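Bug #77: duplicate submission created two jobs. Keeping one. Sequence:
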Amino acid sequence: MKVLLGIFLILAGIVVGLYVGLWLMFIGGIIDIIEFVKQGANSYGMLTWGIVKILFASFVGWISAMILIAPGFAMLDD
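Kept job's structure:
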């Protein structure tokens, strides 16, 4: 049972890491920048937040994946 749960945690960690890092942070940052360009130069906060999201996308995706992957590998070792 621990092995199945460990495998599930590893797979879930990969999915969550890709979702958070790629979709929410990277693509979401690009969408924020596009919305800034559409609206004109009204809100520089949106531009700044979009750039920050793009810069930290890989780090946040990696951390969110490791939160689930590390316990999954620990369960496989038992």
